[in-house]
Amino acid sequence: MIKDKTVLVTGGAQGIGRLVGEYLLQAGAKKLIIWDIDKRGCHEASRELRNAGHRVQFYVADTSKLADVERTAGSILKNVGEIDILVLAAGIVVGKNFVEHSHADIDRSINTNLLGVMHVTRAFLPHMIERGSGHIVTIASAAGLLPNRRMTAYVASKWGLVGWSESLRLELEKLGRKLHVTTVTPSYISTGMFEGVRAPLLTPILKPEKIARKIVSAINSNKILVRAPFMVHFIPLLRGILPSRLFDFVAGKIFGVYDSMTTFTGRRRPPQHQQRRRPRRFYRPRQKSQQATPPPSQ
Question: What is the pLDDT of residues 82-133, one digit of tens each?
Fold first, then answer.
């Protein structure tokens, strides 16, 4: 359930984290805590959501640095209180061949995408267990289900993230309390993070609003997995039954997955006048009559 819950979103100043936080507030969450390294983004997101009548606080800190995590988590627990829903959305990608990665690129990828997620969760999990309730939402990736070129460190971090998130779910379920873990494995999303990529066959680039709504719906129903688009559901099956070379042929030659990052450029911050946007409506009561209702403007 979402109503009257306190939500913390890492990477919450932009992208999927920003939208999920907004939609959770619209779905009835009591308060949103934004945790992001982007100070300007935190200010902008908080201002827009407060202007819409929501309760929002933000903390500027780097989840890839353990000292930042410990200090920030301690401050949140002291000044805000316990967290009901923890959305782990902070992430980065280095879009080049592994031999071109610097050691700093490798460390930054693993520390942000994997270790930072673990450390943030570790800081809040004991309070959830003691209270007997809580929901952890891991924004992983379809890259955590199969290999790909030009994103080796990213893939490594997401493979680890999927395994960690699912293992954590098993541990918490064994406790027999209202402790939930949702693991999200989307393909490419048009947030700007993967700007320039080519969509694989039958795997369209996702609209961020659509996947954010799926995530919020999954939180509300305590769903274990969120996979999108539909073809992502077949990845574990195909990898399980096909020989490696045959899977490579299907994924690489037929679907074009292995060349999807060739044209990658990555996020470019838009001009300041383009950054502000009005909060989108999320939940709207369905009309039972046969009369058509115009959709909300986007």
Answer: 999 999 999 999 999 999 999 999 999 999 999 999 999 999 999 999 999 9
CB 85 within 8 Å of CB 131 = no
Are the CB atoms for 218 and 85 separated by under 8 Å? no
CA end-to-end span of the chain, whole Å? 27
Model pTM score: 0.91
**Residue 154 annotated among the catalytic residues of the structure:** yes
The domain at 6-275 falls in which architecture? 3-Layer(aba) Sandwich (3.40)
Beta-bridged to residue 206, according to DSSP, are 189
Q: Which of 59, 154, 258, 283 is catalytic?
A: 154
pLDDT for 134 equals 98
Distances (CA, A) of 206 to 83, 185, 231, 286: 29, 12, 12, 24
13-51 confidence digits (pLDDT tens): 999 999 999 999 999 999 999 999 999 999 999 999 999
Dihedral (Cα; 283, 289, 290, 292), 10-degree rounding:
-40
Q: How many CB atoms lie within 10 A of CB 69?
A: 23
